[in-house]
Amino acid sequence: MKKADREKLSLPQKKKTRRIMLWMALGLVLVGLMLGGWHAYRILKQPASLFSEAPAATAIPQATILAPAFPVHTDVPTPEPEGAEPAAQAPEGTPVPAATPEATATAKPVERLNILLMGIDAFENGGTTSGTMPHTDVMMLIAINFDENKVDLISLPRDTLTTAPGFYGYYKLNGVFNVGLGGWKRPVGTSDELADGFLLTCRAAEEWMGGISIPYYYGLDFQAVIDIVDAIGGIDYDVDQRFTSMSGQHTYGKGMHHLDGDAVLGYLRIRNAADGLDSSRTARQRRMMVAIFKKLKNEGKLSQIPALINAANSGIYTNTTLSQTTALANYAANLDSNSIQTRSMFGDLGQVEYEWRYAYVDQQNRLDIIREVFGIEAEPVGICTRQFERWLHTVGFSAMKYMRQAEKVLTQVQELKDAGESFTEEQIAIYSDCYRAYVALKAGFDSAKDTLSSRYATAPWREKTSNKKNWTEENKVADQELSSLEADILKSLNDLKASSKDATIRLSDAIGFKTRLSWNVPIDWFKDPDINEVIVNFG
Questions:
Q1: 186 with 292, same domain?
Q2: Is the same domain home to 118 and 257?
Q3: Is residue 319 domain-shared with residue 411, that is, in the same domain?
């Protein structure tokens, strides 16, 4: 067959191929339009569906008891030494560590979405009002109930004495952010660089809110607040007390004023020395949020929130996507401002310690908020009480210090063993004595901590000793019982401390431990890595 004939025969085939390719292209375009339309529909009509897959859970290091270098029999369950035979199955009922929650790809859309809004007290240029470290001085939980079209704004007191999930020590709630960053002192960074701090703060807030899930966050620094308020043209606001703008250039008296970003930031940061939990300040923060919401809604600008965030350029951090933020903005545009309920945890001002205040949260108020918003019957938290703080200073911090010294020497033995050094039977026996004393002290400390924090949480009559004259007979009897319990715990822990110290020194001498051991708790205990795993300036 000639070449020209072959080409004539191939023309219909080429046309057919082109038609197939054209239809495929049109099909892909149609599918894209359908998917884009469906995505737009979800943003506009089904915002909850965009949050059906929570971000992957961040692994939190678990504080565990030190594993023994040699098999050691103790009365307390301990990790098996490296290379040992697998342990037998634990008896039924033995407590086991909870597994780290993981996000599932087919998660059901949430009915209530919880987002933690955090304000960082730092400027983009590095300026901060917190000495060497910026903190999340504003923490407000935004709880969105999509089914009932209701939003709750719940302020968490920044000065609350708390723990950082997975880390050793005691911190203020606004410093958990810094713990997550490993004590990082830079006040600014990228979203990725600061994510661990924000996520750890979310985990701490989850514990304070009765165990609810808080998978999302927004963080803003000073400059972002100024930029956003300026981008919406400022706000008309009825000021409740005299204040000076953040830059110090303008002073405003009570009454209606038009506030720019600099003025709004100054207003939000007014401090009342007599206000124990910054209740006035957190109330101002919630009122300002509602006022900004109303302005954007009345002017039909809520849909511009993603653009406003972009207008800030930097200083805004979040783990939400642009689609999720857009969906929330659209949801807000259809939300009645009367559907926004503002709440705050409150309580008493703690004693001033090293020029810092502690917030002792009223547990009944906390439990009422959790019940009303989330329908959860939470447990009281006793570590945020005056009594627990005093117990830490009396013997708790000291016990922690002694445990750390034992761990240093025990760890040295493990390192020497791993390096191939051999040990005599006498050294192993001394090691076993030290390890048993260490385990006993840790078990005693943990038991005392749990027992007393539980008792302190339900013993409000002891929070203010000036009220003793008003105690009921029931209060007096309960106080006698609690005082007796405290005395027993103090004696027991002191005995355990003495045994651990003696055994640690003997093991230190037996292996020629070179590092100096320290047994005294310094006045500035928060700077001691034997007590607080991460050094954080609480200012």
A1: yes
A2: yes
A3: no
Check whether residue 303 and residue 435 sit in a common domain: no
- Tell me the three state secondary structure of residue 289: helix
Among residues 374, 398, 413, the one where a domain terminates is: 374
3-class DSSP state of 97: coil
CATH number of the domain encompassing residue 170: 3.40.630.190
Kindly state whether residues 393 and 359 are assigned to the same domain: no
Tokens coding 290: 């509602």
Question: Rounded to whole angstroms, how far apart are CA atoms 61 and 335?
Answer: 40
Q: Is residue 284 part of a domain?
A: yes
Helix (H, G, I), strand (E, B) or coil at 455: helix
Residue 457: inside a domain? yes
Range of the domain at 452: 386-527
pLDDT values of the chain reduced to their tens digit, one per residue, 539 residues: 554 544 444 555 555 555 555 444 444 333 343 334 444 445 555 677 778 766 665 566 665 788 999 998 887 777 766 554 443 333 333 232 233 333 333 334 446 799 999 988 876 554 444 456 788 888 999 999 988 889 999 989 888 889 999 899 999 999 999 999 888 766 556 677 888 999 999 999 999 999 999 999 998 888 888 888 888 888 899 988 888 888 888 899 999 999 998 888 888 888 764 444 466 777 787 788 788 878 877 887 777 777 766 665 568 888 988 888 888 888 888 888 788 898 888 877 766 666 677 888 888 899 999 999 999 899 999 898 888 999 999 999 999 999 999 999 999 999 999 999 999 999 999 999 999 999 999 999 999 999 999 999 888 777 665 567 778 888 888 889 999 999 999 999 999 999 999 999 999 999 999 999 999 999 889 899 999 999 988 76
Would you call 137 helix, strand, or coil by DSSP?
Answer: strand
Q: Which residues contact 327 (CB under 8 A, 6 or more apart)?
A: 42, 43, 44, 47, 50
